[in-house]
Structures are given as C-alpha cells and as structure tokens.
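USER:
I wish I could look at a protein chain and see how it folds. I am handing you a single protein, as its sequence and its fold in token form. As I understand it, each token names a local backbone shape. I hope you can help me see how the letters and the tokens relate. The protein I mean follows directly.
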Amino acid sequence: MDKGFALISAVVAAFVSGFIAPYFIYRIKRDYDSKKEAFDLAIKALACYYTDALSPKVQNESESINGLKRKVNTRLETDELMDKALSYVRSYYSEEAFKEFAKATTTFISIENVPNEEFESQKTKAIKRINEELEADRNHTILTIILMIALFIAGLGTGYYMALN
C-alpha cells in the first residue's frame, strides 16, 4: 500500500474524528445536563411543596373560586416551579418516573399529619426512580465518551501503522 495514501488517511481520520467526536460528546453531555437540571428541579419542587404545605402563613392565605378551595395551598412560585418540574420530568424521563413524581406532587400534606408517611414514601420512590434513570444516562455518557476517544486513538494508530509498513 502506498505510504502517502496511508499518511493522508491517518491525517484525514484524525481530522474528521477530531471534529465529529466533540460534536457528539457535546450533544450527549448537553442531554445529560438537561436531565440533571430536571432532577434538580424535581427535588426543589417537592421541597417547596412540603414547605408550603406545612406553613401556617401560606395555608391561611387560602382563596376560593366559586366556593372551591385547594386541599393544599401553595405560593405562586411553588406552583410555577412544580409545573416546570413536571414538564421537565415528563420530557426527559420515562412515563413511570413521571407518574411517580406526579403522584408525589399531589399527595396531601397537612400540619395535622406530620410526619406524613405517605408523602415521604412517595417522594422517596419518585426521587429514586428519577435518579436511577439519571445514573444510567450518566454511565451511558461516560462509556460513549470513552468509546469516541478510543476510536480516535485507534484511527491515529492504524494510520500510523499503515504509514510505517
């Protein structure tokens, strides 16, 4: 085989994989970061919901519309955060994880039933389920990045070997 062709192949392989690998690594990392953000939002939303439910001040500010009242009154910020978290979890995680999280966000909490075992149990189930999927995605991300680096090194090594022979 022509050494010039082998050398050009090695340079082209390194050049192409040097531009393509970072693109894929960026996309994979971006997807993982989005899932991590959804996880963080979910935890924060559950914490705000719990805090609002146990706040006498927030519960005393209850409003009614046509005689209908909420079971658990929450601040507007908490409602917005919970809606955003629900949307993110639905977008980035499985339907089962979303259902667990949605169930936790609708569990009744009151000052009268502290500690609320049902909420604590549902919150733990939701967080564990979401975290399992996040960890699996993290492991996939790491393996993909290692594979891309290995392919880059293999391409360089192959081209170098071909150039020497």
Observations:
- DSSP finds five helices and two strands in the chain.
- The chain has one domain: 3-164.
